[in-house]
C-alpha cells in the first residue's frame, strides 16, 4: 500500500486477545445479578443484543438493556467483576501471533494504541495477565476518550495523544462491526476487519471494512506493502 500509516489503533478482545466466550459468561453473571432468569425469553433477547453489539462500550449496552441508569450501573459492575475474575483465573490468552504483530508494527516505526469497550480496571487486568503493560505506545478505554464505539472518539484521542498529523495516517483493526464503524467515522483510510472474533466478513464489510484479514498477524504486511 502507498498510504503513509503512522498510527495503528487495535481492538483487544477478539482482535489481539482471545475472547473464548468470556464476554457471554460475564454477561450471564450480570443478568443474574439483575434478576434476569437464565435462558428465559428476556435473557435470550438480551444475549442476542450483546452478541450484535460486540465492541460497543459495555455501559452503553447495559443502558440499552436495562433502561434505568441505576440498573445499568449495577449490571456493568457485575459484568466487570465477573470478567475480572475470569481473567484472574487464567482464562485470558493472546491471539496467536498478536504480540509479534504489534512488535513488528512498532518496529516499522508506527505508533500502536490498544483500545477496548471495557473499563480501565478491566483493561488493566487483561494487560497485566498477559504481561502487556508496555506492549503498546498507549492504551485507551471509552471513559478516557469521551464515548466508546461506534463513535470515533478513541481513534481521534489516539491521534491527539500520539501527535499523529492526520487521520489519513491511521489504520484501525478490529473484529466487530462497531470497530469498523469507529474506523470509518474517524476518517482512517485503512479499516481492517479480522476473523478471529465476534463478527464475520459480511458484517465487517457492511460496516465499512476496507480489508478483511484472517488475523491481526496479516496487518503488518498489509500496511507495509
UniProtKB/TrEMBL annotation:
One of its GO terms (cellular component) is cytosol. SUPFAM superfamilies: HAD-like. GO terms for molecular function: phosphoglycolate phosphatase activity. GO terms for biological process: DNA repair. Keywords: Hydrolase. Pfam families: Hydrolase. PANTHER family: PHOSPHOGLYCOLATE PHOSPHATASE, PHOSPHONOACETALDEHYDE HYDROLASE. This is Haloacid dehalogenase-like hydrolase. It comes from Kitasatospora indigofera. The lineage of its organism: Bacteria, Bacillati, Actinomycetota, Actinomycetes, Kitasatosporales.
Amino acid at each position: 500500500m502507498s498510504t503513509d500509516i503512522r498510527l495503528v489503533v487495535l481492538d483487544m478482545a477478539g482482535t489481539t486477545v482471545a475472547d473464548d466466550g468470556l464476554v457471554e459468561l460475564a454477561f450471564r453473571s450480570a443478568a443474574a445479578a439483575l434478576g434476569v432468569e437464565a435462558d428465559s425469553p428476556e435473557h435470550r433477547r438480551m444475549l442476542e443484543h450483546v452478541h450484535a453489539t460486540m465492541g460497543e462500550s459495555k455501559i452503553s449496552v447495559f443502558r440499552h438493556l436495562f433502561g434505568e441508569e441505576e440498573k445499568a450501573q449495577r449490571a456493568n459492575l457485575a459484568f466487570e467483576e465477573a470478567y475480572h475474575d475470569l481473567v484472574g483465573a487464567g482464562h485470558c490468552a493472546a491471539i496467536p501471533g498478536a504480540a509479534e504483530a504489534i512488535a513488528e508494527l512498532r518496529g516499522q516505526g508506527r505508533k500502536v494504541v490498544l483500545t477496548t469497550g471495557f473499563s480501565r480496571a478491566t483493561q488493566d487486568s487483561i494487560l497485566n495477565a498477559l504481561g502487556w503493560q508496555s506492549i503498546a505506545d498507549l492504551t485507551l478505554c471509552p471513559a478516557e476518550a469521551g464515548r466508546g464505539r461506534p463513535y470515533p472518539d478513541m481513534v481521534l484521542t489516539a491521534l491527539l495523544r500520539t501527535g499523529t498529523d492526520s487521520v489519513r495516517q491511521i489504520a484501525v483493526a478490529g473484529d466487530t462491526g462497531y470497530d469498523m464503524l469507529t474506523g470509518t467515522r474517524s476518517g482512517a483510510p485503512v479499516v481492517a476487519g479480522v476473523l478471529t472474533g465476534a463478527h464475520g466478513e459480511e458484517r465487517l464489510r457492511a460496516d465499512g471494512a476496507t480489508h478483511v484479514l484472517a488475523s491481526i498477524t496479516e496487518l503488518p504486511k498489509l500496511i507495509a506493502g
